[in-house]
Amino acid sequence: MTQALYQNKNIARLYGLFFIATFLAYGFGYGILDGLLHGDAGNVQFVKPDLTFILCVIAMVIVHSLLNFGLLTIMFRVIEPFSPLLSLGFLGLGIMSTVALLVGGIALMLMGSATLETPAIAQMLYDANFYLYQTGMTLWGVGGLLLCAVLWRTMLVPRIFAIWGMLGYSIFIVGTLSEFFQSGLGVMLSLPGGFFEIGLSIWLIAKGFNQNPNAPIGHQAASSMA
User: Fold this and answer.
1) What are the CA-CA distances from residue 203 to residues 2, 157, 207 (Å)?
2) How far apart are CA 145 and CA 101, in angstroms?
3) Phi–psi pair at 132, nearest 5 degrees
4) Three-class HEC string of 170-186
5) Is the Cβ–Cβ distance between 140 and 68 less than 8 Å?
6) pLDDT tens, position by position, 62-104
7) Residue 87: enclosing H or E segment and its boundaries?
8) What is the spatial distance between Cα 134 and Cα 17, in angstroms, rounded to a whole number?
9) Of the candidates 192, 176, 181, the residue with the CA atom closest to the CA atom of residue 139
10) Considering the entire predicted model, what is its pTM?
11) Domain ranges for the chain
12) Which one of 107, 122, 189, 215 has the lowest number of neighbouring Cβ atoms within 10 Å?
C-alpha cells in the first residue's frame, strides 16, 4: 500500500526547511541589494558593485526561486488529494508570486549598470522592483489563505495554525495593498503572517503532518457510496 505524502515526516521536514531557507535566501539577498540604495529626496543613489558581487546576488535570487518552487510543489502534492481546486489555486498563485519576485529582483540588479549613467532608468527599475514585490506578496498572501482553508478543513496541522494563518495573511494582504499608496505599513503588517510561516515550519520539522486528518475527497466519496 502506497504511503500518503502527509504520512511521510521527511516530506514535512523538507517543506519546513525549504520555507525557512526561502526567508534567509531572499531576505539576505534583498537586504544586501537594498543596502546599496540610499534615498535622497526620493532619488535613488547607487554604489556600483563588482562582477563577483553581482553574480553572488544573482545566485541568491535563483536559490530563492528554486526553493520557492520546491516548497510549493511539496505542499501542493500533500494537499491536492484533499481539495484539488483550492490546491491548484494555491499552486498557481504561488508560482505567479515567485515569478513576480524573480523579475523584480532582476530589475533591481540591472540598476548596477543603469544608475550611474541614466538615473531616470535606474529610478524606473527601482519602482518596477517595488511594485512587482508588492504584487508578488499580495498574490502570495491570497494563496496562503487558500492553503489555510485546506489546513482548516483537513486538520493536517492543529487548527490554531489555520486560524493564525487566516488572520496573518489577511493582515498581510492589507499591508501589501496599502504599500501601493506609500503607506509605509507593509513591514509591520507582515509580521503576523511571517510568524505564522515560521511557526508552521518549526511545527512540521518537529511534528510533521497529522497522521489521521479528515479523509481526502476520493475517500469521502467512496465511504458515502459504501
Assistant:
1) 25, 8, 6
2) 19
3) -65, -40
4) HHHHHHHHHHCCCCCCH
5) no
6) 888 889 999 999 999 999 999 999 999 999 999 999 999 889 8
7) helix 84-114
8) 24
9) 176
10) 0.85
11) 5-225
12) 215
